[in-house]
Design brief:
There is one protein chain. This protein is mainly beta and 326 residues long. Helices cover 3% and strands 37% of the residues. It has 2 helices and 23 strands. The protein starts with a strand and ends with a helix. The mean pLDDT is 95.
C-alpha cells in the first residue's frame, strides 16, 4: 500500500502501487475500500500508477496525486470517485476512457508528486485556503488554487519559493499551532541534501505576494492577490506570457508537449489587454480565442524581475462577464 485515508464512518481507502514486476498483485493500481475492522469491501477506483490518496479537509472527498510514467504523461491531481478509472492501463481489467483530470502540473516542476495537504488554518497566512502538492524529488511544494470547488472540474497550481533539506514523503497540519509539518527519507533519487528528517513550515506574515485566486475564463485569465500590485508594471502586457500545450497518454514513459495542431511544441497565446481593478489586487489578462487545454502556463514578472509560473488545466470555460453580472 502507498497511502491510507480514514473516512467518516471509520472505513478506509488504501491505494496499491500500479507498478508491479517482481511481486505482482491482483489489485495493482487500485484503490481498495476496507471496513472499519479491516475486511475488504470492494474495489473503489482503478488506474493509478503511483497514486497517493488524501481527503479534502474533514470531508470524505478524495483527491490523489500520481506520478509520470507509462500511460501517465505528466504529474496529475485527480478527483477520485467510486468506480472511476484514472488512466494507468495495467491498473484495470476494463477497457474504458479515463476520468477528466482537474489539474496537470508539468513534470519539470513536480517530478514525483507524493502527497496532498489541505490548508484551511489562517495561521498559515497566504497558504490558506489552498491544497499543497508535495513533490518528493525536488523537494518542493506547489500551492493549488480552486481545489475546494464542488464538483472539482479544474484547478491551478504555482510552485512556492521554498527549499527543503529533507526528501518529503508526507505532510500534516498540526491543529495545535496551525503550522505544516513534513517528514521523509531517501527512498529513491531525491536531490535533497539530507537523508531524513522532520521539517516545519510556518507563516512569518499574514499575507504574501503570491496569487490567492487563479481562474481561466472564456475571455482570459484572472489573477487575484492579497497585496496591491504596482500599477504601471501590472498593466504592462510585456510582463506576462501565456503558453499552452497538450499531452498524449501512451505506453511510453511520460509525454512530450504538443501544439493544438498535433505538432511537437507549445502554442504562444497573445495577451491582448491587461486590466487592473480599483484595489490593484486583481489583474485580468484578456486572451482572444481561449480554448480548453490540458496545460496552460501563465508567467508574470514579479518585483525584482523574476518570472513566476502559474499552471492551469482548462476543462471548461465559464464566462467572466456572466459570472460577475450574476
Amino acid at each position: 500500500p502507498l497511502s491510507l485515508v480514514v473516512l467518516s464512518d471509520g472505513s478506509f481507502l488504501i491505494s496499491i502501487g500500479g507498478q508491479q514486476e517482481a511481486h505482482p498483485s491482483p489489485h495493482a493500481g487500485r484503490v481498495l475500500h476496507l471496513s472499519p475492522e479491516g475486511k475488504l469491501m470492494g474495489i473503489f477506483a482503478e488506474g493509478l500508477r503511483n497514486g497517493y490518496l488524501a481527503k479534502i479537509g474533514s470531508t470524505d472527498r478524495i483527491i490523489a496525486t500520481d506520478q509520470q510514467g507509462n500511460w501517465v504523461p505528466s504529474t496529475p491531481m485527480h478527483s477520485i470517485k467510486q468506480g472511476g478509472f484514472y488512466g494507468f492501463v495495467p491498473g484495470t481489467d476494463q477497457d474504458r476512457a479515463p476520468a477528466n483530470v482537474p489539474l496537470w502540473v508539468p513534470h519539470r516542476w513536480a517530478q514525483s508528486g507524493i502527497d496532498l495537504v489541505t490548508v484551511e488554518d489562517s495561521r498559515l497566512g497566504g497558504l490558506s485556503p489552498s491544497i499543497l502538492m508535495v513533490d518528493f524529488y525536488q523537494p518542493r511544494l506547489l500551492k493549488i488554487l480552486g481545489g475546494f470547488a464542488t464538483p472539482l472540474v479544474q484547478a491551478a497550481a504555482l510552485p512556492l519559493p521554498i527549499t527543503f533539506e529533507v526528501p518529503l514523503l508526507k505532510g500534516e497540519i498540526n491543529p495545535r499551532d496551525g503550522q505544516a509539518y513534513f517528514t521523509g527519507m531517501q527512498i529513491w533519487s531525491a536531490i535533497a541534501p539530507r537523508l531524513e528528517g522532520l521539517s516545519r513550515l510556518r507563516a512569518l506574515t499574514p499575507t504574501d505576494n503570491m496569487p490567492t485566486e487563479a481562474t481561466a475564463y472564456r475571455e482570459g485569465v484572472l489573477l487575484q492577490f492579497s497585496q496591491p500590485l504596482d500599477a504601471p508594471d501590472a498593466l504592462d502586457p510585456a510582463n506576462y506570457r501565456a503558453t499552452a500545450w497538450s499531452y498524449r497518454r501512451t505506453e511510453a514513459y511520460g509525454s512530450g508537449q504538443y501544439r493544438s495542431n498535433g505538432d511537437p511544441g507549445v502554442d504562444q497565446w497573445p495577451i491582448h489587454t491587461v486590466l487592473l481593478d480599483d484595489s490593484h489586487t486583481t489583474v485580468f489578462l484578456a486572451i482572444p480565442d481561449m480554448t480548453e487545454t490540458p496545460q496552460l502556463e501563465i508567467q508574470y514578472r514579479r518585483e525584482g524581475g523574476d518570472w513566476q509560473p502559474v499552471f492551469f488545466t482548462v476543462n471548461t470555460l465559464p464566462s467572466l462577464a456572466a459570472e460577475r453580472t450574476a
